[in-house]
Design goal:
The chain is 39% helix and 21% strand. It has four helices and four strands, in the order E-H-E-H-E-H-E-H. Strands 1-2-3-4 form a four-stranded parallel beta sheet, sandwiched between helices. The chain is globular. Bound molecules: flavin mononucleotide.
Length: 140
């Protein structure tokens, strides 16, 4: 899908699996957060694991470095508890809105953390992520 890009900061791979499911649904591949933001992407899916109720440092750096005016952003994340992603997504949303982005929606699931949430994100979670991708892409 043209004009759409997916980026993720995932230390352990859980949120990367979600990003891959979203990108596959859109017929694209996940971009590199260490590279500059593509100029033609009007809809960005940005995701992160939750580390101390916050996104990864790499994602915050990506947001700080990019130009987001006129872009729509859909946020996603995984965390040990439901609260964690909600807080983490709020941190990303605030930083993005300060940079002129329009946050159009968010989605999160539990992610395996030590012995918690074993096997998650699971197939049901990933199906939810794919549905979120379709809905966000349709709302552009
Ligand atoms: C250093 C560290 C800090 C974490 N802090 C939180 C937290 O504050 N709240 C929470 O709900 N989960 C927390 N978690 C759990 C992760 O958010 C969860 O395992 C997530 O799925 C990790 O995503 P990733 O595999 O993409 O890195 C933490 C995990 C690690 C490794």
């Amino acid at each position: 899908m043209a004009g759409v890009a997916v980026f993720v900061d995932s230390r352990g791979g859980n949120t990367r699996r979600v990003a891959d499911a979203i990108a596959e649904e859109l017929g694209i591949v996940v971009g590199d957060i260490a590279a500059p933001l593509p100029g033609d992407a009007r809809l960005l899916f940005l995701g992160s694991g939750t580390y101390g109720s916050a996104p990864g440092a790499g994602m915050m750096k990506f947001i700080a470095a990019g130009s987001f005016a006129g872009r729509n952003v859909a946020l996603f994340g995984t965390s040990g508890g439901d609260d964690g992603s909600v807080k983490m997504i709020a941190v990303m949303a605030e930083a993005l809105e300060k940079k002129g982005a329009t946050v159009i929606g968010s989605w999160h699931s539990r992610g395996q953390f030590l012995l918690l949430n074993w096997g998650r994100p699971n197939e049901e979670d990933l199906a939810g992520a794919r549905k979120f991708a379709r809905e966000m892409a349709a709302s552009r």
